[in-house]
Amino acid sequence: MPKFVPSLGRVGRALIALAALVLLSGCEWNFWRMDGHQSTMVVDGPVAREQLRVFYVTCWVTLFIFIVVGSVLAYTMIKFRAKSEADEHAEPPPQSHGNPLIELGLIGASVLALVIIAVPTLKAIWVTYDLPEPERKNAYAVTATGYQWWFKFEYPNEQAAVDNTGTKAPLVTGNELVIPAGRPVRINLRTVDVIHSFWVPKLAGKVDMIPNRANVIWLQADQPGYFWGQCAEYCGDSHAVMRFRVIALAEKDFAEWRDRQLAVARAVAATAADAARPRTQVTALRAFHRNEVGVTAKFDQNPLEAWRAKQQPAGNEDAALIAQGRQLFTTKTCNACHTVRGHGAMGVQGPDLTHMGSRTTIAAGLIENNSEQLRRWIRDPESVKPGNKMAKAYRENKISLNDEEQVAIVAYLESLK
Amino acid sequence: MDATAKPAFLTREESAPAKPRLLAHPTAKTGLMSWLTTVDHKRIGFLYGVFALFFFLVGGVEALLIRAQLMFPNGTVLTAQQYNTMFTMHGTTMIFLAVMPLSAAFFNYVMPLQIGARDVAFPRLNAFSLWTFVAGAIVLNIGWIGPFFGVEGHNAPDAGWYGYSPLTSKQFSPGHAVDYWVMGLQLLGVASIAASLNFIVTIINLRAPGMTMMRLPVFTWMTLVTAFLIVLSFPAITIALVELMMDRNFGTNFFEVSGGGMPILWQHLFWVFGHPEVYILILPAMGIISEILPTFSRKPLFGYPIVVFSGACIGFLGFAVWSHHMFTTGMGTVATAAFSLATMAIAVPTGVKIFNWIGTMWGGHLMMRTPMMFALGFVWMFMIGGFSGVMHSAAPADSQQNDSYFVIAHFHYVLIGGSIFALLAGIHYWFPLMFGRRVSEFWGKLSFWVIFVGFNVTFFPMHFLGLNGMPRRTFTYDPNLGWNSANFIASVGAFVLGIGICIYFAVMIYTYYKGERVGRDPWDGRTLEWSIENPPPEYNFRVIPTVHARDAWWYEKHHRDEIAQEKEAHARAEEAHGGIHMPYGSIWPLVVAVGMLIAAVGITAFEAKWDVPGIHWKLGLSLVGGLVAFLGIYFWSLEGNEGYHLHLDKDGKPEAAHPPAGH
Question: In the structure, what pLDDT confidence band is assigned to residue B593 with cuts at 50, 70 and 90?
Fold first, then answer.
């Protein structure tokens, strides 16, 4: 038998202390506050709250069992440990084979603990799965459709003007879902390609979007707010950057937003001031490295306010530049995939851009909707979102945009409030 | 039982007629040929172990690349496609090429010794399982070399280890990556099922006299349960993979949405396999722990019947909980509730094991040696993994946790803190038996502590990441979501864990060549494998033991005189019946596996546009492979199953060989 090496206990303790130090040092980087934009622990709606309640029940019950069993285990390890080599070679302890009473008692206790978890679980399954039948009719209806890699949101009960002739069709937006606050929203989940999953952690747990399957999720935001969401089922190359936002508005704000959206795209008329305006200076856009962050800290401080600011046209628009951009939108065949209602663009493969200037993010919630990021995106979409269809269309149709064209298209898109 | 009553084939003397040279039995005992033709369960177990540990390191490197990418937000170590390949291959490699074959290594090496057998029931089938496993591993990994040759469409698989349809369809995964994945898993399935049938027959039929089922060591019991799980669950994934292959190559519509197929069908088929698979990974580990804890507590296992019964119970229930992987697929309230409750129920037999392990140690003399350290690490870590598992069983809570880092934390606590800790414990525990050398306690414990700390620093923060909303399988994340510090800590921990594993392996390799030599039974063991000298002779037992109690070797040590007399008598009886019967080696299992490898590569790697006029590569190579495999099987059956006899002198050395007739 080899000798004991007592120094190892000390090495072990030192390593554990070091590990604890590393974990604790995380504190100052707000490691376990778990209050991020996608937190499931700080929630803002009844569905997520019910799910969190069940989580806490499981958490406390298992923590209690862990403390009890862990204490016994720790006691056993310390108390019955051979203290010396002599101890190891002592007469073997009594060769007992078990105690049925203790074993059955522990099985009974485990079952009891599970019943404590099972009851709230069963209740929550029914509550969170769908709204009760009578309330379904009053819920606000939306259809969300997953694409590789973005979300389309359709409002089946809101008829939007398709063009200037009075034709109407359900309102369609992309990547930013605007809902009324304080009212249940029932969302049909669809997909056109692979499986995606709809997840807004602060409002509700995820439900998958599966081909040939009519899934539904319901959620509700207690208060007006701006919420982060993300696809939660691996769906190919750019799964990680398939994100979206939910903006909940008070009833009146929501109605105003809806009315703006129902109108066709805005056209910017040239004014007297435009003639005198010097041509916009076109400078080359700086290089971005792969996966470079595309949101600013300022935006995070009050995203709902940032969203509101986006709803009104900017003061000093360059009508000539915008007109040039609108022209390019057609000549560069952007309209083959994107819809801009009222501007003759009817493509359906990409997000609807009719009011895209009023959104806070682009590229499926990945980067902020500002001139620089928008230009980064249309200049080289592949570097922002690997494998996406727009980059593929650029390659196949040999589309490229020079600096001036980029600036013009950005100006046009930003004018689409 | 009458130990002298031997089956007829054991008593038959060599009388085989002269054979053509092609069918001559290989006789090499050393050198490369001896390894390629071996049917010795110990050599096969060793080879399984070597391959498994190699792929364990490969999977580890993949994991470190993943953690390097996620160390900081917006990382650029890997591209999106490379990252997706890494997590796909990390999962597939660790499950199918590391943990499963490492368990198989122990099944092969230890189980026949524990039941007092001289080999498994079908030694050549055992070799076939090994080589088919290697063929599957090659097919699964062959895509890595594609990019180096600049061949379009030949990559390592990148559709996730669970390959959800329709992402795996030709439309969304063009190229051959998914084909390699499909065919690699099929070969691994063949290997696993063949091996499992072998283990089942061995345990049922080759137990030493007196080794009743309720005297089987728990590790052997868990081998049996695991083998049944493999035999019953792998057909589900085999069917699913065949359907996927048909969809991809021959235009069927099982999962093809445009043709009315149902992608959800894949999920059901996959998880009907996939959940029992979880227990295939953990039950052998539980078996190892149930051997180590009694040995180092110097007490029998507490509540043996309940531990065995709970193991079998976990196996049964394991088939009734698959849909808890699908709580977010909108199954409906009743199905969700049913699978939720079934999943909770499985916590009971699992908890029973923990209680009984503590009961085993209670009142014992705990010898804190390296295997015991890993075993205790297992109990603690598995408890944490088990409790987060109970949290998942509550479906509403799971709808937030599913596909988040919380799940990653959970199953790494079960699979590293559980399976891997137990397997590492098992290597330490049986190392003296396998190689007659023991690992230094200092270095063994040092590697344990570094692994233990590295593991916890890596995976504990992931609980917080998941609850803070970080989804799995994402190659990048933004810095404004509160995930930075936890990811950084996890990555640091991953490299510490990597260092720990490196220390572990360095120590093992050193010990293999230079370690302290030990005699028979260095741990004061309880089961039959410790009754033989180390390293074990090729015939294992000089005399097939007769078992009188559970913990047969412990009983023997305390009843030396009577057992010695009994053995004497049995030895004489066996010699009178012709001596120790040994199986011949065979090259044909390897030939069949090579044929299947060629066929699999043929089916996956070629397509129409590669055709040279007049030559259809896909069909041609598949046919060649099929032919090789068929010829292998044909000669395998022609060479016959007779063996030869060993006669031992009084030191246990085989006497001058009695060459069988015809040689």
Answer: very high
For residue B164, list chain A residues with Cβ-Cβ distance below 8 A: 194-195, 233-234
**Residue A223 CA neighbour count, 13 Å, CB half:** 4
Residue B565, burial from CB neighbour count under 10 angstroms (0-12, 13-18, 19+): exposed
pLDDT at B659 (0 to 100): 47
Which chain A residues are closer than 8 Å to B467 by Cβ?
Answer: 34, 39-41
A265-417 CATH choice from 3.20.20.80, 1.10.760.10, 1.10.10.10, 3.30.70.3270: 1.10.760.10
pLDDT interval class at B614 (50, 70, 90): low
Neighbours of A327 (CB within 10 A): 13
> Least CB-CB distance to B328: which of A36, A62, A197?
A197
| pLDDT tens digits, one per residue of B362-414 | 988 899 999 999 999 999 999 999 999 999 999 999 999 999 999 999 999 99
In chain A, domain spans = 37-78+102-129, 130-263, 265-417
| Cα distance between residue B376 and residue B384, in whole Å | 13
Domain coordinates in residue numbering, chain B? 37-575
Residue A368: CB partners within 8 Å, gap ≥ 6?
Answer: A294, A295, A296, A299, A360, A361, A362
pLDDT 10s digits, A160-180: 999 888 899 999 999 999 999
Q: Decide if domain B37-575 falls under CATH 2.60.200.30.
A: no
Q: Hey, is the C-beta of B174 within 8 angstroms of any chain A C-beta?
A: no
Residues 483-502 of B with CB under 8 A from A: 483-486, 489, 492-493
* Contacting residues for A384 by C-beta, under 8 A, at least 6 apart: A241, A288, A294, A363, A366, A367, A376, A377
Using one digit for the tens of pLDDT, what is the confidence trace for B496-529?
999 999 999 999 999 999 999 998 999 999 999 9
pTM for this predicted structure: 0.92
DSSP B174: -
Query: Which pLDDT band holds residue A6 (cuts at 50, 70, 90)?
Result: very low
pLDDT(B12) > 80: no
The owner of tokens 């982060």 is A228
Facing A129 at nearest CB: one of B333, B393, B452: B333
Q: Which residues pair with B471 in a beta bridge?
A: B404
Q: What is the pLDDT of residue A350?
A: 94
The reported pLDDT for the residue numbered B608 is 54
- Closest by CA to B621, choosing from B647, B649, B600, B635, is B600
The CATH architecture assigned to A130-263 reads Sandwich (2.60)
> Is the predicted pLDDT of residue A346 greater than 50, yes or no?
yes
Phi, psi dihedral angles at B17 (to 5 degrees): -70, 165
Cα B647 to chain center, whole Å?
35
**Position of tokens 């005297």?**
B215
The secondary element (H helix, E strand) that includes residue A146 is strand A140-147
CB B444 within 8 Å of CB B450: no
Quote the DSSP letter at residue B16. Answer: P
The CA distance from B448 to B500, in Å, is 7
Closest CA to B49 of B304, B330, B430: B430
- Convert the pLDDT of each residue in B101-124 to its tens digit: 999 999 999 999 999 999 999 999
> Following DSSP, what letter does each residue of B220-283 receive, concatenated?
HHHHHHHHHHHHHHHHHHHHHHHHHHHHHHH---SS-GGGT--HHHHHHHHHHHHHHHHHHHHH
Q: Which of A119, A113, A120, A121 is nearest to A64 (CA)?
A: A113
Interface test with B, best of A102, A122, A125, A299 (most B CBs within 10 A): A125
Peptide bond into B430 cis (omega under 30): no
Q: Does B43 touch chain A (CB under 8 A)?
A: no
Banded model confidence at residue B7, pLDDT cuts 50, 70, 90: very low
